[in-house]
Write a structure and sequence with these properties.
homodimer; 441 residues; alpha+beta; BirA Bifunctional Protein, domain 2; Rossmann fold
């Protein structure tokens, strides 16, 4: 007997129902925020990913040469595909573009607990709008997705940070421009390294000043409020007026973002946290992550502004902000809190029939199904008791008992299998009755 | 700028909405018939397909060796995966198992119109039930799927045939047992070949008797009713009693199938058609195809009984009947008839706000969104006229006009952008009002 490949999951109906329940919830939350769904194939030209992430990404990909001699890869992320689609229709698209995708992604990673080689990711992006309101909508939509899944401020937090602020902070520390992105790369890892390791990594970049810079970084990590952020910059010495102006302007945008999000009722979920840098070099402004509180503070989602990526990938100049959420961590988090949703399927009705009136009974089954009632029935001839037992095995909430003598006078019994109550209903009123019960969908 | 790979489709929101609309319809129809959804990864061990279809299938696959030195393939069909999943839990599963899957499949085919290398297929299977009622449910569910998509008996037909009947027919023609499957392979292609080609192909199998057999085949092709089928067998000469008994028993099952389907209201969609053989050797009994009428008589779906396949693939003895429907042909057919469904998204409401009362307006937006109302608003500060214009660009059906003076007395205007009617609503009654309009989902 064959097995599924390592890192690839199988979804039996019970698991699939929860999987689809999560997707249903994601989909509805994003639709509520005015986003539209899109998709593309999971197989793409390999070069699409090299362009964005360089040669090293290839190590993590499922890639091969197809029969037409094309280098292809199973998509590891959605953004390059999005960039291509936006680029191809840039002029025809109403701005801002608010799109989302729920799709499979693939990475060949070393197997460990909670890691899969195929995962489903929700990608949410707002494109063509450089203003703060787009960042607000992006962050708000992330919070709404979490809230509608039943998560509260006790269970998750959005950590907000800003690569622009970090670049300005490094500027006040006299780190030369071309080194700043690399320093950000180190800052991204500081919390996972010992202080000695961090200082060593910084020393490689700015020989002789690593200890000083490490202190600067630590003091930024301690910032917890907008006022604190302002004080931090105010406390920096020997900062040119031109830089002060840019700092003031950026702090103004922060205030705007913060106020808009508070108006939308997001205050309780937000936390300033400059330990968040987002490793990827293409982020350009606000960056944020949704974290699970307590247990292990794992990232449930992450994102930020990436104003130049679409252009870099060959598209038009299209400022953008977006975020992504994976199904594996989120499912685990919801499971832990007893919040796993299920796909809403119609309630099943079991048709119990007698052999002598099977013909009429089958006609009724067909009529109800066409009205949207979910009906099952025994494939074998059996007595009422056995059929009712099968109804329970099918998890039916109702049984439609069609006895010959009752059918002869135009009636059937609708039995509620949970509270065992029973109603005699005229055959001609059955559809109406099931509609009233909310069973005809 | 990169392009998508040949044969791989991109779905912009408008296309995606129709795609998801089709899936929604498929899903709901199958749920109504009591089927449960399952899924698995699109990447599978290559051997899984060789086992069922032999080496030749490899030619049509996207396959490669992964970084762990495993031979893998993008799934070309669902049945082997289904067999594995059933096999792994055979004892725990309630019989009959009624499952469906909506998933991507991949074949490296020569590019031509209407062909894609990645297509989505609906797979529907009933397993663990060898009786005619399972065939009835399978065929009925196929018809219900078509009907709920809006197709009528004018537009599609189910052509019913039977490999068992064909094998019996060949037995009465004294074709030896081991040659019969190969003869069926030729019969499957007769309609696409000239008579000469068919006879030539038969001659290779049964030297000297090809013309005689070709006449037998043609006479079976002419059978159009159950009575006709009975007459056909009655007319065969020199048939042993033992064979006659098996024929009678099979005709009895046909009568049962036919009657049950008629009781379910399927009569108008059914046609006996022994030109249908289904090329694949693993089919064992009733086989059927849904055909588009008129235009080009293309197969919209196909299936049949395959009682030994699960066991052959390493699973338990699990009789099965199932069918599959692809998204490409079905979408084209529905498009032709103006029947393409759309995914039902919530109706969007555009929030029109004044700068001086933006704070309160944003709070209202957030409150409505949390109640399930789909809300969008202008990311830029603009006058009412400009905002209402943007509302139209977003295809909003309603605008929520939040003027400062009205808000001061606790009111807002709900404007229907289609009929331009307008209602003044108390802010505290907005959620209730939108619920009444069916906008809060």
């Amino acid at each position: 007997m064959f097995e599924a490949l390592p890192g690839f999951r199988e979804f039996y109906p019970e698991d699939f129902s929860r999987r689809l329940g999560l997707f249903d919830s994601w989909r509805r939350s994003l639709e509520i925020c005015g986003f539209s769904e899109y998709d593309a194939g999971v197989l793409e030209p390999l070069d699409l990913y090299k362009e964005k992430s360089g040669e090293e990404i290839v190590e993590q990909l499922f890639h091969f040469v197809d029969k037409g001699d094309r280098k292809v890869a199973l998509r590891p992320e959605m953004t390059p595909t999005l960039a291509r689609m936006i680029g191809a229709k840039a002029n025809a698209l109403r701005r801002p573009v608010k799109w989302f995708n729920i799709g499979d992604h693939f990475r060949y990673e070393r197997m460990q607990k909670g890691r899969t080689r195929c995962f489903t990711q929700l990608n949410v992006d707002i494109l063509g709008d450089a203003g703060v309101t787009a960042d607000v909508e992006a962050i708000y939509s992330l919070i709404l997705v979490c809230k509608r899944l039943g998560l509260t401020g006790e269970q998750f937090v959005i950590r907000l940070s800003d690569r622009d602020i970090w670049l300005l902070a490094l500027e006040t520390a006299n780190i030369q421009e071309d080194l700043r992105p690399q320093v950000l790369g180190v800052i991204d890892k500081v919390e996972r390294m010992s202080d000695e390791q961090s200082i060593e990594a910084l020393e490689k970049l700015i020989s002789g000043r690593s200890k000083e810079l490490f202190d600067v970084i630590q003091s930024m990590f301690a910032v917890e409020s907008l006022d604190g952020l302002k004080s931090w910059f105010d406390g920096r010495e020997n900062v040119a007026d031109e830089i002060r102006e840019r700092i003031a302007s950026r702090l103004e945008e922060w205030r705007d973002l913060w106020e808009q999000l508070n108006k939308l009722g997001c205050g309780e979920f937000l936390k300033l946290d400059f330990t968040i840098v987002r490793g990827l070099a293409y982020y350009t402004g606000f960056v944020f992550e949704a974290f699970e509180k307590g247990r292990r503070a794992r990232a449930l989602a992450g994102g930020g502004r990436y104003d130049h990526l679409i252009e870099k990938l060959g598209g038009p100049d299209f400022p953008a902000v977006g975020w992504a959420m994976g199904d594996v961590t989120m499912t685990d988090c919801l499971d832990h809190h007893g919040l796993l949703p299920s796909h809403e399927t119609p309630i099943r009705v079991f048709a119990v029939m007698e052999d002598e009136s099977r013909e009429t009974a089958m006609k009724i089954v067909a009529k109800l199904r066409e009205s949207g009632v979910s009906m099952v029935y025994s494939h074998k001839k059996a007595g009422f008791g056995k059929q009712l037992k099968e109804a329970t095995q099918w998890n039916c909430q109702y049984a439609l008992v069609m006895g010959s003598s009752e059918m002869a006078i135009g009636k059937v019994l609708v039995r509620n299998l949970e509270d065992r109550s029973e109603e005699s209903i005229g055959i001609n009123y059955l559809v109406q009755h099931f509609k009233k019960l909310g069973l005809a969908v």
